[in-house]
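Long-time lurker. I teach an intro course on protein structure, and each term I like to show students one example going from raw sequence to a predicted 3D structure in token notation. This year I'd like something fresh instead of my usual example. Would anyone be willing to generate the tokens for the chain below so I can use it in lecture? Attribution to the forum is fine with me.
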Amino acid sequence: MRVGGRIPQRIEHVDAQGVWKTYGAVVALRGVNGRFEAGRVTVVQGANGAGKSTLLAVLGGVTRPSRGRVWVEGVGEMGEAARGLVGWVGHESLTYGGLTVRENVELAARTQGVEASEAWEEAEDRFALGSIATRETRCLSRGQRQRVALARGLVNRPALLLLDEPWTGLDAGGRRRLDEVIAEERSRGAIVVVVAHETEVASRLGGERLLLERGGVQAGAHAVTEGRPRTSDRKDGFGKSTT
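-- Reply from a regular --
Happy to contribute to a lecture. Here you go:
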């Protein structure tokens, strides 16, 4: 499916190492440390303004940390060489309004060096896009645009998948399908990091919670293994034991 050579599409872990992010006098992230591992889902939670979306942006190389670094196993510091490994779906379903659904997906595929027609066939099936394939995305509902955005974000079968409140706008069927897609990506070996407000999301996805408070990692998180929560003894706020 991929056109041309590229660094391997599986990575075992991505590490946030003392990550700070400031915007003038505003501190968005405060010394965040943590490891995000292949085949795991991490659900980032916290109050509004806690730094959740900023953490995703830093992990994905969308913005650079003010201090510290993001280290990609087998590649090095997050930067241009690693961005082809990343799939990103932001809180806003960003699509090209004047292009059709299919054109949006195929453009994303070509940008990532992926064969466009095969990418479309996979996305059409995975996100039920066939009935709206020829419609311009500016004419779609919020939920339909979100399905297109998800298809675009996953078009390169990313090793690091970053999702910012990805259920926004989806109906009940779309939400169930997205849960299935996240489970499929985890089984494929992707590192999945999801921002969500609902407290039950980690349990539903069989994932781990990472709690942020005022830009820092909050201690006393809980782990979820096979959908069963357990208290963590880690001090970095991740729901995974260090022992």
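Some talking points for your students: Residues 92 and 146 are 8 Å apart (CA to CA). Residues 172-188 form the longest helix (17 residues).
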